[in-house]
Amino acid sequence: MTKTSLFRAGSAAVAASAAALLIAACGSSSPPPNSVSPSGPGSSAPVSQASLVAGSKKEKGLLIFSNALSSQMTAVDQAFQKQYPWIHVTAEDDEDPVVFSKYTAEHATGTRTADLLLASAPGLWVGAVANGLIQPYTPPGMSDFPSFVSQGKGLYIFSPDPAITIYNKLVLKGHPAPGTVSQIVANGIAGKYKVATYTISNNFGYTAFYAYVHQKGWAALDQMGKTAATPGDGDVLGQDVAQGGFGVAVFESGLARGPIETTSAGKILGWEYTKDFTPLIPRGIGITAGAASPDSARLYLNFVFSSAGQQALCDAGFEATSNTFTPRNGCANTLKALYAAVPEANVYMTPFSAAVAGAQASFTARFRQAFHQ
């Protein structure tokens, strides 16, 4: 972790507070629909909302293995429980590999395990689908969402999280924040400030860099490798930029937007979309094949892709994707807001695909070459 003493004592205290807040955060109801599409494995008949509600009342809560921060998931879960107060939700905060390995191990032994999986790793999701870890289910209203939200066979995009640029206002000394990746790279090479980005060993980092190379090519990443350091994941980037070790971090998690805008972190830090290219990192969700509370899980998916659920996701810092959703409170964590700031042609979401999963080892080796690691 790179830290430098660039601030006076008072400013250093603010920077430390900003870093802590960023790390901690990098964390009106509408009626439920009347019917849903086919439910669990082997079922092809539509299941009514009333049937799901009745079934959920016989179940013993909802267990989610999730890679999202507890603070974020709690906000969404509480909104869900306002509609379904008899369903107690427990969301465990796990790393991507643990989400899948824990479910697989527990399911194999017959232990009570997750009803829903929530994770971001393309390779792990490809394996989960291929190995039958999730069951097919179609929530109502999917025609209101971009086609990429449905990844097939019961896998959906819970939130396509945008990567953003964060910067230290004191290091930039009042100069406007760079608005493009190419400008950040050029400024870094010119020595105007130090640049940081995600480590390739993190699934968020791999997915963002894969998207960048897919759209811009290896030559662009080679240029970034001439100036950018890779000190760690999003928490490390936030802390190091807040404390002045780096002036700018590119491809930081979009979850940093909330604390920068709403806490004292904003005294030191700012954020921008990079208008020449913004990667979306998909966070997938699916009902497990071994769900002990399948009806509760289906109600949860119904909620996520409802207007009330999209509002809850937006408020929690996730990205609302519905084409028909308008936040009631001006929340800007939506694809509509992103496309208003960045041309849609300059936005790319890395899919959950075998090609992406299979390329990770060779891509990582080539990345390390570009970054001289």
Give an account of the 3D structure.
This protein is of the alpha/beta class and 373 residues long. Helix content is 42%, strand content 19%. The chain has helices at residues 9-25, 49-56, 70-83, 96-109, 122-130, 169-172, 181-189, 203-216, 218-225, 234-242, 257-262, 294-304, 307-316, 335-341, 354-358, 360-370; strands at 35-38, 46-48, 62-66, 89-93, 116-119, 150-152, 155-168, 195-198, 228-232, 248-253, 269-272, 278-287, 347-349. The strands form 2 sheets. Strands 3, 4, 5, 6, 7, 8, 9, 10, 11, 12 and 13 form an 11-stranded mixed beta sheet that branches. It has a two-stranded antiparallel ribbon with strand order 1-2. Helix 1 (9-25) packs antiparallel against helix 10 and helix 3 runs antiparallel to helix 13. The longest helix is centred in the first third of the chain and has 17 residues, at 9-25. The two termini are 16 Å apart. The model is unreliable at 1-45 (pLDDT under 50).
Architecture blueprint of SSEs:
Layout: H1 9-25, E1 35-38, E2 46-48, H2 49-56, E3 62-66, H3 70-83, E4 89-93, H4 96-109, E5 116-119, H5 122-130, E6 150-152, E7 155-168, H6 169-172, H7 181-189, E8 195-198, H8 203-216, H9 218-225, E9 228-232, H10 234-242, E10 248-253, H11 257-262, E11 269-272, E12 278-287, H12 294-304, H13 307-316, H14 335-341, E13 347-349, H15 354-358, H16 360-370
Parallel strand pairs: 3-4, 3-5, 8-9, 8-10, 12-13
Antiparallel strand pairs: 1-2, 5-12, 6-7, 7-10, 7-11, 7-12
Characterize the quaternary organization of these chains.
Answer: single chain
Low-confidence stretches: 1-45
Beta-strand residue fraction? 15-25%
Percent of residues in helices comes to 40-55%
Overall geometric form: globular
> Which whole number gives the mean pLDDT?
88
Number of helices: 16
Major sheet size, sense and barrel closure:
11 strands, mixed
- What distance lies between the first and last C-alpha atoms, to the nearest angstrom? 16 Å
Label the structural class: alpha/beta
Order of helices and strands: HEEHEHEHEHEEHHEHHEHEHEEHHHEHH
The gyration radius over C-alpha positions equals 21 Å
According to DSSP, the number of beta strands is 13
